[in-house]
Amino acid sequence: MAQALIDLVRGKFPDAVLSSASEKGDESIAVRREALVDVCRFLKDEAEMKLMSDLCPVDMLTFGQEMTGGGSLASQEATPYALERKPQVEPRYRLLYNLYSVTKKQRLRLVIELRSDDAKVPSVTSVWRTADWWERYAYDLMGIEFTGHPDLRRILLYPEFVGHPLRKDYPVQKRQPLVPEHDFPDLIRGPGPGPGGAGLPMSQTHVGRQNVDPTTYD
Amino acid sequence: MTESRVDSRQSTVDSQDPFAREAELPHSLVTINLGPSHPAMHGVVRLTVTLDGETIARAVPEIGFLHRGFEKSSENSTWHQVLPYTDRLNYVSPILNNVGYIMAVEKLCGVKDPPRSQYLRVVAGEISRICDHLTCIAAFGLELGAFTVFLYGVEARELLWDRISELTGARVTTSWTRIGGLASDAPPGWAEKVNECMPRVLELTDEIDALLTRNRIFIDRTRGIGVIGGDEALDWGFTGPCLRASGVNYDVRKAHPYLVYDKMDFEVPLGQRGDTHDRYWVRIQEIRQSARIIEQGLAALPPGPVIIDDWRYALPPKKEVYSSIEGVMAHFKHFMEGVKVPRGEAYGYTEGANGELGFHVISNGQGKPYRVHVRAPGFPILSALPRLIEGHMVADLIPIFDSINMIGGEVEQ
Amino acid sequence: MKIEGNTPESAGAENVLPALLTRRDQAIGFFEKAVSGALGWARKNSIFQYPFVTACCGMEYMSVMAGRYDLARFGAEFPRFTPRQADLLMIVGTINVKQSPVLRTVYEQMCEPKWVMAFGVCASSGGFYDNYATVQGADRIIPVDVYVPGCPPRPEQVLDGLRILQEKIQSQRHDASTLEVAEDVKKRGLFTKLFGG
Questions:
Q1: Which residue of C has its CA nearest to A183?
Q2: Do B234 and A102 touch (CB under 8 A)?
Q3: Is the pTM of this model over 0.90?
Q4: Based on the structure, what is the number of domains in chain B?
Q5: Is residue B106 part of a domain?
Q6: Main-chain phi, psi angles of C5, to 5 degrees
Q7: What are B202-212's pLDDT values in tens digits?
Q8: So what's the ipTM on this one?
Q9: Is residue C57 part of a domain?
Q10: pLDDT tens column, B351-383
């Protein structure tokens, strides 16, 4: 159904569309980053895709599982060991734009792939006003920069936060407290070394602003 | 942080009119802070509002005070352990969140749940939708000073929560759906109890309607306030009742019917002006339409299992777990490693109570999701809040903010 | 089990008779107990709450305030949405790191006597959100008097928590020797006449 739409886009922008796919009922096209704004404007005006539903940033670092240590009980986070020894996965980031046309009842997904050292994308706020906050969300949690965005700053986290938590190399429990917190003995994880209880008070397993460099690991 | 501004209109003042002279006194803009902890019980938003007298010159919303790391937590839990996290996204209509997430995962797995489960999902989802609209309207009334509306709305919601707790085991946070079906079937006699309590719920809705819709004070406070046109609303990413109040007919249940919505006969109420009154009115009408769907769904409820028999995705029955080796192995793998959802990505979209609730799920074949992203319907609507309130007076801020029904849990994940 | 004051040490104090008890001490002790009892009774039956509502527990909070599980019958009806006029801070819902300075500011703005109820398991211990964004319990930031666990707790559980808090308020002792009195009142001599040095 949206195949006609994909052909239309391919016809208008032959060198911008890198590939197209249709899986599980969703159609998607991979677009070259430089042509993103033009393709979006074309889709909004010609294909009446007036609703930008969603912008989903994905970090592909541990998709292939070499970086998690393998095993079925492993989490999807990269272990520090692997990060030191294995090379980065490229392209690392995927941006998924979900577009919808209310009049034609068609959906389309745009896929942009970015390298980890070059995570910059032109902003589409000039095409859809709603992209404003979605791009701020992608910047906040994943660290992708949107050139041309009117006000690119953190939206869900606070300005003192260092790092981008949704990336696979950010440990899930690494807190950066704003207000001094009391120590309590760790009843759940218990004492002792290991991935659970470290035998340290909880305040030392967290990273405060005033002590350890937050980009190192606990 | 006040900005001084000398009024430059003094030269054109008519010196004969004393009131005109008074109005031209120099004044400055005042910035006030509607802090993250405020009585409008919708979640936590900080609104930094710059006022020119009583008129709002500029408003800057700041969110993040309820960011609980849903997406990061879901990458560290199995596919079924994500379900309680989804409950707490839109916590006034948790079953719709459960259904939305599980349907996205089922899209990836390529499984379809049995007919009884589909009907029950629709019926329970509509009950949850009624709860959401009732909560929105109750809070709306409360903040405009109509405490009675709050009491009626919460009483109606209690009646429905009794039914939900009989069905799922919990009043608010249900975690009821599973991949391939449901966790539990409706207890015997449940359908009759729902049919008994729905007239009372509709009666309470009619009372609220009679109290508010044609009330002079309510109309004065909400008519023509926060107007947004259909095209502009789409550009801002509106979906759901707020979009339908602006006249755009987009309801996922009608546009892309899922589960058994294509078999249900219901209408989609549309507003005309796109103002606060229309957003409230659309919700009242949707309660009535949802009641129709519930009645039809319960009448057509087929007998049968509520979960598929495929042990790769669904738990085996306890009898099998205790008596066969395959059963106990499937049970063990299900809980220790999680369901192994096939590799791929899918965007599952359903009609949540606030609009198009989408779950973008990506799997790399493991028992834990690789990425779960929720397209919260309230997120883009909240981003348009400055556009809605600028130019209005301070007293109009609260009705507009209530009418967009921002739920903190889903906007801030 | 009677809850004796705030500190573990005072739990045994009441049961130990001093070696020498003068009539004056007896009279003062009786007076203190009467005043404490009266103050406790008045305070526990007229709690002005500040509902610091953040998340899903707010739904059960609405239920507790409404007609079916009525909080007004315990005297705790009026939410005072300014901390200056409130004495019970109900932390309803998850506290995350961005919200923690706000919570601390609100707590510090309240006047004594004040109590804190952690409503829900997220406010008690962080709930099941053990990640970069949430504070693992509001008691990491401010002292909490009553913990009401549940996700969200049923309204009956909240009312039970309120009852426990009321017992605690009733049994708080006001010891005259720890009273901090302004210097000019001391100079007037009435205080020293009544309560000794």
A1: C140
A2: yes
A3: no
A4: 2
A5: yes
A6: 65, -165
A7: 999 999 999 99
A8: 0.87
A9: yes
A10: 999 999 999 999 988 888 999 999 999 999 999
